[in-house]
Design a protein that fits this description.
Elements (H helix, E strand, L loop, with lengths): L7 E5 L11 H11 L4 E5 L6 H10 L4 E6 L1 H11 L6 E5 L5 H6 L5 H10 L2 E9 L2 E3 L2 E5 H14 L4 H15 L3 E6 L4 E6 L1 E6 L20 E5 L8 H9 L8 E5 L1 E5 L5 E6 L2 E6 L2 E13 L3
Parallel strand pairs: 1-2, 1-3, 3-4
Antiparallel strand pairs: 5-6, 5-16, 7-10, 7-14, 8-9, 8-13, 10-11, 11-12, 13-16, 14-15
Helix pairs in contact: 2-3, 6-7
Length: 298
């Protein structure tokens, strides 16, 4: 348990969640006060400022640094905390909130605040690729390309989900896949695939719990790819997964470290928790067991 009266700093992505609330900072301030754990709220001018804000909070003596936003905000704040030994609190304000769901953090705002106030800390694993932290997953192939296209459409004024659908249709129509050489242990595996998905711990890949994880502390990465599927067939793969008929479509394997090369391409788009960067190959993946403390329900 955390010490009495901890110093709590909340890094707030003001562009996320809490629909219908005009002053998000004040609303969170009042919720923490009501929970008996006053907090300093730090609104972000830009989501890109989250890592610097988190580092500043640590330098100024925060006992708990809270990410209030979606998975991108949570990832950015967590990356600044991994080496600090300060626990991460999460107020899930995003669309999907993958990490909060898998960690058992309530999606209800008041209950999430009370969870932070109660201060029960659990250690979880962190994934890393070429020095970039991810809490959920990292991927190359079709998904980063869709994200880039979606963001371009959003800059043109389209709403996020409409832009995502249009981007997906456009990319899948002509997507040929990516050739990857994966080394985990002694034997490299070379294959063309629409995607390579590397999860921090094991994901359900079919059925009602598709995309969820049962645990966050196994100390293993799990890689998934679909070598016999064309990009245009991915919607069918997803549909089969939802009804539990995915067997034989995906290849998967687990490891503590992975090396991924893309023959003929020295740089490649890589998504980490939904954020896309261009990284040099080979990609060096590793898991960092239980390197992050997270405030979770008792």
């Amino acid at each position: 348990m955390l010490a009495a009266a901890p110093v709590i700093v909340v890094i707030l992505n003001t562009k996320a969640g809490i629909k219908g609330i005009d002053d998000r900072s004040e609303h969170l301030h009042e919720l923490f006060k009501a929970a008996g754990a006053p907090a300093q709220i730090v609104p972000l001018v830009s989501p890109a400022d989250a890592p610097a804000a988190a580092r500043s909070a640590v330098d100024q003596g925060a006992d708990v640094v809270v990410a209030a936003g979606g998975d991108g905000t949570v990832n950015s704040v967590a990356a600044a905390l991994v080496r600090s030994n300060k626990p991460l609190g999460v107020i899930p304000l995003g669309t999907l909130n993958h990490f909060a769901r898998d960690a058992g953090i309530p999606l209800d705002l008041e209950r999430a605040v009370r969870t932070v106030a109660d201060g029960h800390v659990k250690r979880v694993d962190v994934g890393e690729v070429n020095g970039r932290i991810f809490l959920n997953n990292s991927s190359i192939g079709v998904y980063p390309d869709i994200v880039v296209e979606r963001e371009a459409l959003q800059r043109q004024g389209h709403r996020k989900w409409i832009a995502f659908v249009w981007a997906t249709v456009k990319i899948l129509r002509h997507y040929r896949g990516v050739v990857v050489r994966i080394t985990a242990g002694d034997s490299p595996h070379v294959v063309r695939t629409p995607f390579l998905f590397v999860g921090n711990n094991e994901y359900h890949v079919e059925g009602l719990h598709l995309g969820a994880r049962d645990r966050l502390d196994s100390g293993r990465l799990f890689a998934y790819l679909a070598p016999r599927v064309h990009g245009r067939d991915l919607p069918k793969v997803l549909a089969r997964a939802l009804v539990g008929r995915q067997r034989g479509t995906l290849e998967s394997f687990e490891a503590a470290t992975l090396q991924v090369d893309t023959p003929g391409r020295r740089r490649v788009r890589v998504a980490t928790d939904g954020e896309v960067a261009v990284l040099s190959t080979p990609l060096q993946y590793r898991v960092r067991p239980r390197e992050l403390g997270v405030v979770v329900p008792v």
